[in-house]
Specification:
Elements: E1 5-6, E2 9-10, E3 12-18, E4 24-28, H1 34-62, H2 68-102
Antiparallel strand pairs: 1-2, 3-4
Helix pairs in contact: 1-2
Length: 110
């Protein structure tokens, strides 16, 4: 995945981690640097873990013997995972918008 330039300036990329007190972190560049590659790897891991968690959730919810504590734990992990996935989507959506804006607002060719 590469970073995108908009109007001659490198676009800021939302990173898949936060700073202290949950503040967002960004990197500015062309998407080929160490931090961008690390972010790509972490996003890939987060998305993979979300898929695994969904599979586990389906199995757990199908088990009629599941306890309230197990369901609460599952809900907490699903919430964390959804937060990660939303951050990945926000980051990728912003980069996609930068590509479209950088292309003069043209939509993809059919």
């Amino acid at each position: 995945m590469s970073g995108e330039k908009c109007a001659g300036h490198a676009a800021a990329r939302l990173l898949p981690w936060t700073a202290e007190q949950g503040k967002p972190c960004y990197v500015v560049g062309d998407g080929t640097g160490y931090v961008s590659r690390l972010a790509d790897d972490i996003e890939s891991i987060q998305l993979g873990m979300a898929g695994d968690l969904l599979g586990h959730a389906g199995e757990l919810l199908a088990d009629r013997r599941v306890t309230g504590a197990e369901l609460r734990y599952l809900a907490c992990r699903l919430s964390e995972s959804l937060r990660d996935v939303m951050r990945v989507a926000e980051s990728r959506g912003a980069r996609l918008e930068a590509v479209v804006a950088g292309a003069g607002g043209r939509q993809g060719r059919g």
